[in-house]
Amino acid sequence: xxxxxxxxxxxxxxxxxxxxxxxxxxxxxxxxxxxxxxxxxxxxxxxxxxxxxxxxxxxxxxxxxxxxxxxxxxxxxxxxxxxxxxxxxxxxxxxxxxxxxxxxxxxxxxxxxxxxxxxxxxxxxxxxxxxxxxxxxxxxxxxxxxxxxxxxxxxxxxxxxxxxxxxxxxxxxxxxxxxxxxxxxxxxxxxxxxxxxxxxxxxxxxxxxxxxxxxxxxxxxxxxxxxxxxxxxxxxxxxxxxxxxxxxxxxxxxxxxxxxxxxxxxxxxxxxxxxxxxxxxxxxxxxxxxxxxxxxxxxxxxxxxxxxxxxxxxxxxxxxxxxxxxxxxxxxxxxxxxxx
Length: 340
Hints:
Rossmann fold; alpha/beta; globular; 8-stranded mixed sheet
């Protein structure tokens, strides 16, 4: 895939998925504005992009405000002469169950993940429309935003909002030939080391051991680089027909998430009263009630965990329903992947 002459902003590119996106785009020949929260992280990724063959410049700031978003667009245009794509990847997690989540926990995640996506997307769309030759906006979704997840009221709400923005912006920007899609990644990032099921695989990967095929497939779990090809594709001319989609990626798996659809309907002359619903609800909708909350994938425990438990003579660990507040919820993999 050749992206020579393509100018891209990647927010939250200092580590994890954002770094992988930036390097992959550079490898394809793109010019990349690397946004990170500190100078050292930005400088390291800029150097990686340059070594990969792309042009790169740093942009050290926190996303969230309109001023920050406008600065990113202006910096990219000043450095590369134009803007072709915005990858809104920056995000944070502040995981707590509902009754323990503070206002600050909620507001900080909304500011970065939802407002930051909005302000960066708006700034990019405004410039791309004025530039007049189309473009691409890629947003960072999450499985948590598609189905909810224990301990992530704030994060799941922002990622559900991101999915809604992808579909809305795709409709609003279609006439300007600007595509908008949400990537829904799972990856072995810093946050994944806090998930007991995945932590040993992350540690093994850091030692240079490959992630087993069953985990790569059933768990859609691999290094961040596994997800980067999707972003390169979405930015490329080959994906001009793809817009308004939420696309899952991780390990050996790529998937397409459905938009919310009306599954069943019932009718009652004169409208529905509570007694009517009590009588008819199960018959009309019982077979279509939807699952909720994230589920851990059906993958084997790492051999080191099995061996350690056998040596200690202990039983298998409690299932998710028996666990206390999780240190990192099941799909905080994706949350960590988007951390700036």
